[in-house]
Amino acid sequence: MSDHDQSLWLKTCREHVEDRPLSGDLTVDLAVIGGGYTGCSAALTAAQAGASVCLLEAQGIGHGGSGRNVGLANAGLWLPPEDIRAHLGKRAGDRLIDLLAAAPADVFDLIERHGIDCDPVRNGTLHCAHSASGLQDLQRRHAQLSATGAPVKLLPADQATQRTGSAAFHGALFDPRAGTIHPLGYVRGLARAAAEAGARIVTQCPVQSMKYDNGQWVLKTPHGSVRAKSVIQATNAYHQGLQDTAPDYVPVYYFQFFTAPLSDNLRASILPGGEGCWDTGLVMTSFRMDAEGRLIIGGMGDLGQAGRAVHAAWCRRKLAELFPQLADQPLTEGWHGRIAMTSDHIPKITQIGPNALSAHGYSGRGIGPGTVFGRLMAESLLQDDPSLLPVPAVPEYRESWTALRRAYFETGATLMHLIKARF
Ligand SMILES: Cc1cc2nc3c(=O)[nH]c(=O)nc-3n(C[C@H](O)[C@H](O)[C@H](O)COP(=O)(O)OP(=O)(O)OC[C@H]3O[C@@H](n4cnc5c(N)ncnc54)[C@H](O)[C@@H]3O)c2cc1C
Q1: CB burial of residue 8 (10 Å; 0-12, 13-18, 19+)
Q2: Which one of 131, 162, 289, 323 is separated from 36 by 20 to 30 angstroms, measured CA to CA?
Q3: Mind listing the pLDDT tens digit for each residue in 240-270?
Q4: pTM exceeding 0.70
Q5: Backbone angles phi, psi at 58, to 5 degrees
Q6: Does residue 416 sit in helix, strand or coil?
Q7: 153-160 contacts, C-beta under 8 A, 24 or more apart
């Protein structure tokens, strides 16, 4: 059994997508490679605009980060607004900040409009201060976000305790724009909506090669080929094959374990308002409830490596430390996923050829950004207008010291989890 088979999201997803297998040759306006938020949002947008679209997914819809994540539909990026402006300049920075401030509203609107069965809870998120210095970081974020008009609230320790049900925090930053979803349900629902709008969704169909020939792209798969005027590559951290257009990023692994559904008594004392949470720790922890009242707790690390036992033991200690009333809850099943980090934490769009774009590197914040980037890349290609893109496209993007930095994150997370439960 692979780690992904233990995913709570796979076990509890109620959305299904009808697959229309490919055979022979197909010609469309837009070919999309990859069935995560970016690809499905692009396919939905293009099909709704009247374009012919074929989305090719190597495995199943949501096989990548989109089916494995925590399900926090956040506003903005990891970076606070001033850091985004420092990297992109004021004009491009402000545009990205505004687009991503509205991203949770976009996500919850799509869920409502297409009746996506993914347990949306729009009760906000809590970024919890794990230490005094964590609280200072939240104060800085609060000041910067408030200056952009974001309706965020800094909560003192006693209110953070009340809202989370844990006495472990020094305070919390509440963002009412955000919320939680069933992440696999959302991506499958986007794919279903795209199919209903006329897009052809093909799964178990890896694109093995792509070539620009006579003003058209030709994408080859084991089951046939697709010709298209434009291409969106939305393969991100789960890119396979296609060496020439492989996105470059630092892979960071994140795992999650879950309890059995909690009794009504326990549920009343933990996250009674239904917010999704993560903390300010350098090696971060997240926690949230699902629709059936299971507590899902996550941390950084690769369950596929020798560190599995260390990470699992840490998770049990961390759960007991945050919520002593859950100390005897078994945490037996867990899964992990790979995050595409960029060193500046800004997502990248690369121009991989004529009328061909690739997006990656949401750095752990991809539900809102993936939805927005997919939509705007489709609009930009269909209208032949690069100014519609959320960030300017670059001809190429390369990270340095990727292997070293991957080792740093994984070894650091394992050591932290080995040494102590509180950091
Ligand atoms: C454990 C974890 C927790 C996270 N938590 C959050 C969170 O709480 N909130 C948040 O906003 N973000 C979170 N993220 C980030 C978010 O999940 C990702 O940024 C987002 O899912 C990326 O979506 P995507 O569509 O770009 O790529 P993906 O969802 O990774 O999809 C890429 C797809 O491309 C397919 N593919 C690859 N190569 C080919 C090929 N050659 N041919 C055809 N198909 C191909 C893959 O099979 C895959 O399905 C988390 C990520 C992880 C891993």
Answers
A1: buried
A2: 289
A3: 999 999 999 999 999 999 999 999 999 999 9
A4: yes
A5: -65, -35
A6: helix
A7: 155/126, 160/126, 160/128, 160/129
